[in-house]
Amino acid sequence: MIQYQLRSVLSITLLFASPILVTVSGCSYINDNYGASKVKSTAVMPTPAVQKVVGDYASESYTARKQGYDWVGIMVRPDGATDITIKVRARSDVKKPTCHFDGKATLLGQDDAHGIIFQTEINNSNDSNDSKVFFQFKDDTLTIDSPDKYALNYFCSGGGTLAGNYEKLSGALELN
């Protein structure tokens, strides 16, 4: 009988002691990473000026592309709060593309008279002289220009140039 009572007391003691042991042993866990990780937001909201110019633009001959005319298209995408990426592509379905350019431009300023202006510097040859290029957006027209008269010829073949006016398209640029 004493053995039975001893077993009962031992069982009851283990029953109540088990959660305490589990709790005490659970407290010894150390998480070295706790609090060390910080969430970094990589999404940057573009300024209203950047949002306004984002889209696809094309030369005047783009509307006659089905009749075989050569054309140049420009894709403008946001790249941060005040920067845009610019990709220039030309017709490539029938012949070698005449123009190709990939670059990044920074917001220079905006006003009612000039619209929204972005600027970048390009190296248009093997020398170390950089040329400024301006991208002016006004009334759904993109005008590309540079103070260096020949800087924008470097990216086109056959005597072509990136300099000129491009109209904003209502849809996506069709590359072929």
Automatic annotation (TrEMBL):
It comes from the Bacteria. This is Lipoprotein. It comes from Psychrobacter glaciei.
